[in-house]
Design brief:
Elements: H1 2-5, E1 7-8, H2 14-23, H3 29-39, H4 54-63, E2 64-65, E3 70-76, E4 82-87, E5 93-100, E6 105-108, E7 112-113, E8 131-132, H5 135-153, E9 159-162, H6 172-183, E10 195-199, H7 203-211, E11 217-221, H8 227-233, H9 242-256, E12 260-265, H10 274-286, E13 289-294, H11 309-321, E14 325-329, H12 346-349
Parallel strand pairs: 1-2, 6-9, 9-10, 10-11, 11-12, 12-13, 13-14
Antiparallel strand pairs: 3-4, 4-5, 5-6, 7-8
The structure holds S-adenosyl-L-homocysteine.
Residues 119, 121-122, 163, 167, 198-200, 221, 263, 265, 294, 296-297, 299, 340-341 line the site of S-adenosyl-L-homocysteine.
Length: 350
């Protein structure tokens, strides 16, 4: 009961913390010390804040709790990928994935518990959206994976992709607050150019982030440049026609001078015909972009099958012929359901 009336100290800004100490007849500077414990050192209890007096620690104890995530379960893929089941303070679970390559370690981070969108091919969409993650829950996933990266791969995280569970642009305020902490020198001090936010394509929010002059990269889950096909795959896209999406992408490019990356899975019999390829090439010609052809990660839906190799090759060649940068991305962590679109707390539900 008592803890419920206490505030989560991590919802306070540095200024709030300084103010708290002034109000409690102490030095504002204590606020900076506490902030460092919370955000730089990742301390999860007041006892551990060893440069504070016992009285100060008790004062904090009296007023606040420290909500934090805990790694509930860890699975390792035979390709080195690590999937974490992350338990939140209210016992809900999200997943985050650490993906090593020869030169990089990338953290794939979740932004919501479940997802409110309805992409037919995505396992997360099968769980309804339960809530947004708080800024510190997003940030904590990154800190936890940074520690894992140092422990297992001997280097800090090099990249972050918001391609875990949820739609990051539908939890915009918390996403931005988390990215601020990730990039600030009082936080992890990472460069925003190493962060990519992936959206299913919500034009209004894409324009907003362009207006806000965010400094991270943007990826858009396109999957088809034909409206009828796209909205079959992603029913919510009926409300966001491709023309609106294209306009938002152009707007983003005009405001940020950064090209968007399109994520694109090729499925057998769904989007592997010549007209699908032509539609994508035409779409790509509108605004500078890159295309990432992603391998399909099965989620147990029979109607979706990875397209044949020669169809993917056909996409690649058609794009290259128009000098559009294209990469084919092999999926990682498939054996532990850690690949794109497979995050659905399988272990938890079993
Ligand atoms: N909601 C955001 C971010 C999460 S999904 C978005 O839609 O972009 C991250 C990427 O994985 C998206 O490009 C998504 O379309 C893709 N994806 C989802 N399910 C997949 C699957 N089963 N196989 C391959 N990619 C998938």
């Amino acid at each position: 009961m008592e803890t419920e009336s206490k505030r989560d100290i991590r919802s306070l800004s540095l200024e709030d913390l300084r103010q708290f100490f002034i109000e409690n007849e102490d030095k504002a500077f204590r606020g900076n010390q506490v902030y460092q414990w919370l955000w730089q050192k990742g301390t999860h209890d007041f006892e551990g804040m060893t440069n504070l007096s016992k009285a100060t620690r008790s004062l904090l104890e009296e007023h606040f709790v420290i909500n934090h995530i805990a790694i509930d379960q860890q699975q390792k893929s035979n390709d080195g990928t690590i999937k974490n089941a992350v338990k939140l303070h209210d016992d809900l679970i999200v997943e985050s994935v650490l993906i090593p390559t020869a030169t990089r370690t990338t953290a794939c981070v979740s932004s919501q518990v479940g997802c409110s969108l309805d992409c037919e091919f995505c396992a997360t969409a099968k769980i309804k959206r339960m809530r947004n993650l708080n800024a510190d829950e997003i940030y904590d996933q990154v800190v936890a994976m940074d520690q894992q990266s140092r422990l297992y791969f001997d280097r800090p995280l090099t990249n972050i992709v918001f391609m875990g569970m949820g739609e990051p642009l539908m939890n915009y305020k918390n996403l931005i607050a988390a990215i601020d902490k990730i990039t600030q020198s009082e936080g992890l001090g990472m460069s925003p150019s190493r962060i990519t936010v992936s959206t299913s394509g919500i034009p209004k929010m894409m324009k907003k982030i362009a207006d806000d002059q965010v400094r991270f990269g943007l990826a858009v889950s396109l999957h088809s440049a034909r409206q009828s096909v796209r909205q079959e795959l992603m029913p919510f896209a009926e409300k966001f026609p491709l023309d609106d999406l294209a306009e938002a992408i152009q707007y983003w490019y005009d405001k940020t001078s950064k090209s968007v990356t399109y994520e694109y899975v090729v499925w057998k019999g769904i989007n592997d015909e010549e007209e699908d390829i032509k539609a994508l090439v035409d779409f790509c010609k509108q605004t500078p972009c890159k295309v990432n052809l992603i391998e399909y990660n099965p989620i147990g839906e029979d109607k979706f099958l990875q397209a044949d190799h020669d169809r993917i090759k056909a996409y690649e060649m058609a794009l290259e012929a128009q000098r559009i940068t294209v990469t084919v991305r092999r999926s990682r962590g498939k054996d532990i359901d850690a690949a794109c679109g497979q995050l659905a707390n399988k272990a938890e539900r079993q």
